[in-house]
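Project standup — Tuesday

K.O.: blocked on the structure for the chain from last sprint. Re-posting the sequence here as requested.
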Amino acid sequence: MTTLTPSAAPARPTAGTGRAAGTASRPGAVRRGWTEHGLVFVAPFLLVYGLFLVWPLISGLGMSVTSENITGTGGEYVGLDNYAEALADPQMWSSLWNTVWFTVLSTVPLVAAGLVLALLAHQLRVVQWLWRISWFAPFLLPSGVVCLLFSQMIFPPDFGLADQLLTAVGLDPGIGWLSDERYAMLSIVLTTVWWTVGFNFLLYLAALQAVPQHLYEAAELDGAGAWQRLRLITLPLLRRTTGLVLVLQVLASLKIFDQVYLMTGGGPDDSTRPILQYVYQQGFTGYRIGYASAVSYIFFALVLTVSLVQPWLARRKEEAGK
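H.V.: unblocked you, prediction finished:
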């Protein structure tokens, strides 16, 4: 007869042993925790993000309530005086209106042209790659090249391409495209549309390629024409892409600076000067860093409001349409 004896329970480590083991494994545990949560991989990005975005954001907010000068003098706390002065400054409001007006004029053709070009490129079957790269290539050009091209070849009076086209159709070519207040903003809008429409075109083209082909085949079997397929299938399925393109385009147009600064310098008579150029002039020409910071934060509040309200309105419209 075999006698079963209970096995001995494992000995518990002493307090000193536990502390020693915990101390020995703590660095490894910390390293594993960082690796498991991805902190090691995102730490370089967080460092650069905080150094070049978060810190300037906080620093600029602090300067906006001081009389900071670019020469290093001043810096006294003035409270909200800079903001009050900016809100009462007619030049600030004029520059802000120019920015909003440019956004209104450029957003509609950029979104519509991007959609039309994407539809054409999606339907073409001959050298399709050539059409795609041709319509997207201008977006890859630097702003200086584009502005020099239009100011020296397209819009010069008398011998520019724009005046040559007017002469060819029997119209008066004597138009100051960049020197007349009536046409200067329109010229900048045309330049921007030609230059940046490729980005919207690429987004729409990617969305079109994701539309299931069987939907078109079923609609065609039911007798739907090309216009009906576009109106009832393509455009509804592109609604989210259109919302994204619209938000990105409005935000990009509100931040206009390069084209105006290089082509007209804000003229004639400040009729094309955007708010960012006004901030630049106040900060680096007028040496008023504190006041320029206050104006930039007023503009930042506008951009933030647009970026939050526009998707909310689009979402409400989409929910109401269901």
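K.O.: great, moving the ticket to review. Residues 1-11, 13-25 have pLDDT under 50 and may be disordered. The CA atoms of residues 49 and 55 lie 9 Å apart.
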